[in-house]
Design a protein that fits this description.
It is a single chain. By secondary structure, the protein is mainly β. It folds into 2 domains: 74 residues, Carboxypeptidase-like, regulatory domain (Immunoglobulin-like), CATH 2.60.40; 649 residues, Beta Barrel (Maltoporin, Chain A). The protein contains 10 helices and 52 strands. The strands form 11 sheets. It has a 22-stranded antiparallel β-barrel. It has a 5-stranded mixed beta sheet with strand order 10-15-16-13-14. A 4-stranded antiparallel beta sheet has the order 3-2-5-6, with no helix packed on it. β22 and β23 form a beta hairpin. It is globular, with a radius of gyration of 33 Å. The protein starts with a helix and ends with a strand.
């Protein structure tokens, strides 16, 4: 009896205890990939039950379970993972990519999509691709990473513009830059510089806050942005929090910078030799009567240039290039914290950048702060805010065309001392001494930027939600300069200039998203909404002169106000959009989108444009006849067609404008712009056909694409007769075509527990052609031409034919090839020919990523082929001693006696022998460059855990460490920032080579 009672007691106790352990509880967590990127839409199922849920947009989930049950996490393209429920209430999962699938989450217009199911061409970069690259511009971090995307810095100035071209140039007169969208907010991207050289408006962004960059390349992807997607769309997504404990990340690096290249110029000995010879050779040309007269004249010039020093004994031999270019530094620091719980997730960050440029007097200092917060009020409603602030302070130098810019110092002869005996900059030089400008003047630009987005999402049902976003972008810039009485060209007692410009943009987006799966075969998503965007700009400036001393440098100390101006302008866009995605049987893919845009910039009756797109894809590897293949892992073909627009023109370009004027000191009104009420959108029609492939469990994968992009109704200024009262009118005229191919190859070369090595290679070819111009007439501008059937802005030059070996005369071809090759010494008798183009035919990138027992190595090579650069300064720098500018050392190879074979004509002072604008100064700019390299080491976890750290990594980063090119100028990527024309360099600073050491700590 006692044994029976004891047995019943034990049985009852076990039942009660088991019942206690089997009680339900709520488990929450976040699902990311191995790179830490949140995965929305992951299926979270309790095995052997019909209970489950999905992760939200930020990868968060919440589910009611019992201990001992098993949660199964599955997501297309990733290996399924299971977790047995224990006492933990929080489960954070990192899903590994499934070698049997090809998948990635990309951000598209107003949503996200699986790369596997995508019918568009979208290139994705993650934070790993752009972290720890010590350059002020985020665009520069993209270089070489995406097929068909060309990134070119204007020059080596810290604030210099960056040219980004996606599948070529889609416009002639309107903007050619892509649309940048930051967390759903279209960014202001207008150059507001007032010193003649552009600044990069996106300098205000810091790479430490960026989670991913998605580049929408084809029209199907970009058409949902309609009127502003003609040049492609770059979607920037910032980092956010997750359902986990707070995690801190500290990154600090310091590096030194130097020019990627310097050139060889004549020293004092060589200068005296060459110019003495040039003077004597000019006797035969009648410039001088006798050798003695020529000698006396040139010796007098040497006396002037030497400024009282003993030039005959070479007392002075100044290296002006060494004064203009310097070693700089780059200092980067950032700190961020992210985390949260089931309801609230947060990300806070701050960053600091201090860059001293390679050009004397050029510096940048920037601070950034960001707050991203998301809160779920209940299962249906969540809201959040993204907010950032930055302040960028730039000490600037003059544009490339100004005598006082440092790089023009290379024109100073080596005989001239840089400083006088008392240590002051020498004021008696051939050209103004930039050191006087550096000491007695300044030009400072400060950019303050605030970007933000407040958003709310309400889910009516599991399949239907509504999003409402309000975005704001404030770009506020001030510029202040002072030129003291001792600065070059200063004829007054000091001059000050001050300007301010504020541009603010509001955008309101409201849209519904319907997403539903019907059975096992039908997957439907539909997005529809509207958007309103308004921008306002206010500018004012003032100039004052006559200051009591150079110690007073602000406008209020000026005795006389000599100039001032102010303006206000605005524009608005009203848009309606829709996108439909349909997937049948997980292998037949369809997408259609349409956007209707209205813009205040166009004529009253043509303000609205409609931009449709359609695309389809077929995952052949899911078909029975391929699914069992042991070699083929993935195969998809896709095709798309779409139309996008371009509205990058002046705010009132269609209107007839009037402005106030003064006549005999009386106010009046005068017409300033001719009206064109029919001015409307540029339209870009693009077709794309692509193939995505994967072999051997996706150890080898990639894409092949062909595209054809035709721009119609090109916007640019057409000249008007003088009798009209206006110089030009803005019209829709012309057709431009870009077509090309892109090839991407990804390989996982080695995959072991201790060693992995992967490679990405991409290459693309783009053919650019002007198809139609008004009346078929050529448009010549400087050294370039627009001509039907030729590339955009092709170089149009007299063809240099070398040197006559009998007498040293420079020769030019009279006619082009096929018409005889007669030559002349008179360039005015020679016909100009199309001799090259400023845009590359081929661009390529090669990235390798290697991990080995704590060590990591990543490096990217970029290459460009088919473009040319015209050296606009060549007629002064490499002119065989035509005037007194110092010469490049190759001019020593000049013709000297009959029979000499050389391309450098005889040195003749004032002879103009070979100095005409010609192909003599045009060169191929093909290059291969090691764009960036990072080598790091991460301490083992067993060591970092003992000191309370999650990660401790030290690294070395190099930018532009190696360049392989036959171009003998400063740099194959550097061009003028002073408007000399596309593809023209003019005393332009070379690119920057940077080497940095850094540390990255997580705790």
């Amino acid at each position: 009896m006692k044994k029976q009672l004891l047995f019943l007691f034990i049985l009852l106790f076990t039942f009660i205890t088991s019942s206690g352990f089997a009680q339900s509880k709520t488990v929450t967590g976040t699902v990311n990939d191995v790179q830490g990127i949140s995965l929305p839409g992951v299926n979270v199922i309790v095995q052997n039950t019909n209970r489950g849920t999905q992760t939200d947009f930020d990868g968060n989930f919440s589910i009611s379970v019992e201990e001992g049950e098993v949660l199964e996490f599955s997501y297309l393209g990733y290996a399924t993972q299971t977790v047995t429920i224990s006492q933990d209430d929080v489960i954070n999962i990192s899903l590994q990519e499934d070698a049997g699938e090809l998948d990635e989450i990309v951000v598209v217009g107003y949503g996200t999509q699986s790369k596997r199911k995508l019918t568009d061409n979208v290139a994705k970069l993650t934070s790993e691709d752009i972290d720890e690259v010590p350059v002020p511009s985020i665009q520069s971090t993209i270089a070489g990473k995406a097929a068909g995307v060309q990134i070119s810095p204007t020059n080596g100035k810290v604030e210099g513009g960056v040219n980004i071209r996606i599948r070529g140039i889609a416009s002639i007169g309107a903007g050619s830059e892509p649309l940048y969208v930051l967390d759903g907010v279209p960014l202001i991207n207008s150059n507001e510089s007032n010193n003649g050289s552009p600044t990069n408006p996106l300098l205000t962004l810091s790479s430490n806050e960026i989670e991913s960059i998605d580049i929408l390349k084809d029209a199907s992807a970009a058409a949902v942005y309609g009127s502003r997607g003609a040049n492609g769309v770059v979607i920037i997504t910032t980092k956010k929090g997750a359902n986990k404990k707070a995690s801190f990340n500290l990154n600090y690096s310091y590096g030194i910078s130097e020019p990627t290249n310097t050139r060889e110029w004549l020293n004092a000995d060589e200068y005296v030799e060459l110019f003495t010879e040039a003077a004597l050779n000019s006797v035969d040309d009648g410039v001088f009567s006798t050798d003695a007269e020529a000698t006396d004249y040139i010796n007098g010039i040497f006396d002037f240039l030497s400024n009282g020093t003993d030039w005959q004994n070479r007392e002075v031999d100044t290296d002006w290039q060494d004064l203009a270019l310097q070693n700089g530094h780059v200092q980067d620091a950032s700190l961020s914290v992210s985390g949260g719980n089931e309801a609230t997730q947060y990300f806070f960050s701050g960053a600091y950048n201090d860059t001293e440029g390679i050009v004397t007097g050029n510096m940048l200092e920037r601070i950034n702060g960001r707050v991203n917060v998301t809160h779920s009020f209940n299962d249906r409603f969540r809201a959040g805010m993204n907010m950032s602030f930055s302040r960028t302070d730039i000490d600037r130098i003059a544009n490339d065309n100004a005598f006082v810019t440092p790089l023009q110092a290379i024109a100073q002869p080596a005989l001239s001392p840089a400083y006088t005996e008392d240590g002051e900059p020498n004021p008696n030089t051939l050209y103004p001494n930039f050191l006087l400008q550096d000491k007695h003047a300044f030009y400072n630009t400060v950019i303050r930027r605030v970007t933000g987005r407040a958003f709310g999402e309400y889910r009516f049902f599991d399949f239907l939600k509504f999003n409402s976003d309000f975005g704001y972008d404030l770009y506020y810039q001030t510029e202040d300069s002072y030129t003291g009485r001792l600065a070059p060209f200063q004829s007054t007692n000091g001059e000050a200039y001050a300007s301010s410009v504020g541009t603010e943009s509001y955008v309101s987006s409201n849209y519904f998203t319907y997403s539903q799966t019907f059975g096992d075969d039908h997957d439907l998503e539909f997005v529809a909404g509207m958007e309103y965007n308004q921008s306002k700009r206010r500018f004012q400036d003032v100039t004052g002169i006559q200051f009591p001393t150079d110690d007073f440098q602000t406008i209020n100390s000026a005795a006389e106000i000599t100039a001032g101006s102010g303006s206000e302008t605005a524009n608005s866009f009203l848009s309606y959009f829709g996108r439909l995605n349909y997937i049948l049987m997980d292998k037949y893919l369809f997408k259609a989108s349409i956007r209707r845009d209205g813009s205040s910039r166009f004529g009253e009756n043509v303000r609205y444009g409609t931009f449709p797109a359609i695309s389809a894809g077929w995952i052949l590897s899911e078909e029975d006849f391929l699914s069992s293949s042991n070699v083929l892992s993935f195969l998809k073909i896709r095709a798309s067609y779409g139309e996008t627009g371009n509205a990058n023109i002046g705010d009132f370009a269609a209107l007839g404008l009037f402005g106030g004027t003064s006549y005999n000191q009386r106010p009046g009104i005068t017409p300033t712009q001719a009206a064109n009420p029919q001015l409307t959108w540029e339209s870009v029609k693009q077709t794309d056909i692509g193939l995505e492939y994967g072999f051997l469990d996706n150890r080898i994968s990639g894409e092949i694409d062909y595209y054809n992009k035709k721009s119609d109704g090109l916007i640019f200024n057409q000249p008007l007769p003088g009798t009209s009262g206006q110089a030009s009118i803005v019209r829709n005229i012309g057709v431009l075509e870009n077509k090309g191919v892109e090839f991407v190859l990804n390989t996982k070369n080695v995959e072991t527990d201790d060693f992995t090595w992967s490679t990405n290679f991409n290459i693309s070819k783009n053919n650019n052609e002007v198809k139609e111009l008004p009346n078929g007439a050529d448009v010549v501008s400087g050294q370039t031409i627009l001509r039907e059937g030729e590339p955009l802005s092709a170089f149009y030059l007299v063809e240099y034919a070398g040197v006559d070996p009998e007498n040293g005369d420079a020769l030019y071809y009279i006619n082009g090839e096929g018409s005889g090759r007669e030559t002349t010494t008179n360039p005015n008798e020679a016909n100009r020919v199309i001799a090259g183009q400023p845009y590359a035919d081929w661009i390529a990138g090669l990235t390798n990523t290697i991990y080995y027992t704590g060590f990591d190595l990543n490096f990217t090579f970029v290459g460009e082929w088919g473009a040319s650069i015209y050296n606009g300064g060549g007629i002064y720098q490499s002119a065989n001693a035509d005037y007194f500018d110092n010469q490049s050392r190759d001019q020593l190879n000049r013709w000297q006696q009959p029979g000499d074979i050389t391309n450098v004509p005889e040195a003749r002072l004032f002879g103009g022998n070979g100095t005409a604008s010609s192909t003599r100064y045009l060169q191929d700019s093909d290059f291969i460059r090691l764009r960036n390299l990072t080598l790091g080491y991460t301490l083992p976890g067993s060591l970092t855990e003992n000191i309370g750290l999650e990660k401790f990594r030290v690294y070395f980063t190099g930018i532009n460490l190696l360049t392989f090119t036959d171009y003998d100028g400063y740099d194959p990527e550097s061009t003028s920032d002073a408007g000399q024309g596309v593809g023209v360099t003019f005393y332009s600073a070379p690119a920057v080579k940077t080497m940095s050491l850094g540390v990255n700590i997580n705790f």
